[in-house]
Design brief:
The chain is an alpha+beta fold and about 200 residues long. The protein is built from four helices and eight strands; from the N terminus they run αββαββαββββα. The longest helix is centred in the first third of the chain and has 19 residues. Bound molecules: heme C.
């Protein structure tokens, strides 16, 4: 299935970040060990416990770990969330953003997954979680207006929506009609809602 393939590509990309950004130096230990050959064992992970077993929050986990999922806990009384949106940035995007003083560099790719949710009462409250993938929004940074005349490129980005069934063919036809007006509140931040991404701060 195409969707599954694309999802696993995303996962691999995130793992790529994990490898590329693994903190340098220090005493890294390989996860796993043992005889089984599993790809995860090749990745060195910084320990989070000292010799006495005191655990701390891993450094740089936002940059180096793979995002697994999100729980949205509703205000009470609340009905929970209709959708969950998970946003991924291509490898090096965050470092590039910081190096450029708060602007994404050309070639940066942002992927927003849109999930329909399931909501259940849990011990933390009324909790929504990702259930069905509806599709992806994809943006590609391009300040050189490389594809002038293409209606899916302009204002510094390439813009497209993909239904979950078809990650290779967009249904978008014109970014000014399909995307831009909704991103006007984020115009000052290059059309990106940066307030949602603590990793950029
Ligand atoms: C109904 C309004 C609306 C439309 C239409 C819309 N967006 Fe967005 N978009 C948002 C909002 C609001 C956010 C951040 C909050 C959220 O996800 O709910 C966002 C976030 C994103 C993000 C994550 C990065 C960021 O800006 O924070 C991407 C990527 C994105 N949109 C791409 C697109 C593309 C491509 C299109 C057109 C095909 C599009 N959007 C159309 C409102 C919209």
């Amino acid at each position: 299935m195409r969707r599954a393939q694309f999802a696993s590509k995303l996962a691999v990309t995130s793992l790529g970040i994990m490898v590329a950004c693994s903190p340098k130096g220090g005493s890294s230990t390989a996860v796993g060990g043992g005889a089984k050959s599993d790809r995860s064992q090749a990745v060195a992970v910084q320990p989070v416990a000292d010799s006495a077993g005191n655990i701390h929050v891993p450094e740089n986990y936002r940059e180096t770990y793979q995002h697994l999922g999100t729980w949205a806990v509703a205000n009470e009384p609340g009905v929970g969330s209709k959708e969950l949106h998970d946003v991924y940035a291509s490898p090096g995007a965050v470092a590039g953003y910081k190096a450029k003083g708060g602007h994404f560099q050309d070639g940066t790719i942002l992927v927003k997954e849109v999930y329909e949710t399931a909501t259940d009462p849990m011990t933390t409250g009324t909790v929504s979680r990702a259930k069905t993938l509806k599709g992806w929004f994809v943006m590609v940074r391009d300040t050189n207006n490389t594809h002038a005349g293409n209606k899916l490129w302009g204002d510094g980005w390439g813009w497209s929506w993909f239904d979950a069934a078809n990650p290779r063919k967009t249904t978008s036809t014109d970014y000014t009609a399909d995307c831009l007006s909704c991103h006007i509140p984020a115009k000052e931040t290059d059309w990106i809602y940066t307030q949602g991404y603590p990793v950029l701060k």
